[in-house]
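In this notation, each integer encodes one residue's backbone shape. One such record reads:

___
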Amino acid sequence: MNPKGLVAVVTGGASGLGEATARRLAASGAKVAIVDRDMERGEKVAQEIGGKAYKVDVSSAAEAEAFFAALPGDLGAPRILVNCAGIAVAGRMVGRNGPHDLAEFSKVINVNLVGSFNMMRLAGAAMTKLEPLDTGERGVLISTASVAAYDGQIGQAAYAASKGGIVALTLPIARELAQFGVRALAIAPGLFRTPLLAALPPEAQDSLANAIPFPHRLGAPEEYAALALHMVENAYLNGEVVRLDGSLRMAPK
């Protein structure tokens, strides 16, 4: 699928992996809708790439439905969705202060997993109603999993569970939507130079980078964006979760 002239929705598009993806898609000619809760940053990025920013809580059915209702009149019907919005909470299931806070666990699942599904269900519903492109495709859904889905460390129970859910969702959604020419994929990044990691001291970043076999460094958001764009363009990629991690396999802690 050539993204030129197509409408792409990028959640978490105001920073990190989402921002890099929004910029890459816009550079390829897509009309990009940036979905984020940080409107100040979202509007700045949108202005720079010629897109439009929307303040949406991806875990809210009402807010997501309102966004998809407004999108066709603003930019057009969506053909591309890239889910990058997500949060992380660290904590042992049984820690020094007792069991893991259930509300915190639920919040991570709700934003990362339910939020991704919420955007996929609505984008997918919109895509199935579109006329197919000359490739036979109607759209593509890309979500962000994590290597934690496979190698979750101690203290990552909530995060790993949320990302494992995204891994498990990908194939059944791809199978369901195949009849409409809508593809479903996911990327499982390793350690990337996102705002969260960039805030760490240089020695902490170096320590994390030392765990990566090759390249011996943190991943660049632009490398995630390049893979997302390739997934959009390569019509034979479907139902797959691709690890993007420099062959990292995380230790228990």
About this structure: The chain is about 45% helix and 15% strand. The chain has one domain: 7-192+220-243.
